[in-house]
User: What shape does this take?
Amino acid sequence: MPAYFLRSICLFLLLGLVPAGAAMAAGEVSVTSSPGDILMDARYDGTTLEVSGQAPAGSDVVVRLVGAPETVHLREKGKVFGLLWMNVGTLAFDNVPRIYLVSASRAFDDLGPAGASLRVTGLHDRIVQEHAASSQDLDAVSELLRLKVRDGLYGEPAQQVRLSADEGGSRGFTVTLPVPSALSPGGYTLEAVAVRDGAVIGSASAPVQAKLIGLPAWLSHMAFDNGLLYGILATVIAILSGLAIGLVFQSKGAH
Assistant: This one.
């Protein structure tokens, strides 16, 4: 068989494989962010993640930043003898995400059952309350969600996910996701969820690390790895601060 004929067959096979590979890639969900990690120095006061990716053509997209689930304890307040507001017990909640920030390409109410489950209020049925509150009228999980929203750790940012036109079975998306100053160092997950006809049809995730750098990192290292030296330094700083404050007030009193 002539060599040019063999080359023609190989070229034909390669050309035939390209559309198949493209078809497999089209419709897949991908997500990435810039920056990839959150660096927290002494001036850290919150930041933003520029999120982008691909989703199947014709789908809506929900983007969320989620923290690892943890157990949260809250003090329950109530009236004692119908007169005084006091702590009447402690409530414990399991499977509470450390952070939950979520944005969608359109209103969650327009995304059907998938939208309802992905928004902040959708966490209500996933958070486990260990025992009932003393007051039967108290929806403790809803109060916990409101507390998290007030602290900026949970929320549905006003900016919606922006979608591009469908192209080759996929569409691009972008969104600016605000990250609060109350964020704790640790690992988080950035997720993109594709929704169509009220159902999830695909998802992708990427890890995001929140890291202390500079002075906060040094102080954290001292506190956890050199506790004795950290305690001595803290004591010395407290004494010097007290002396400085005393001198200031003494000088003002002298006049």
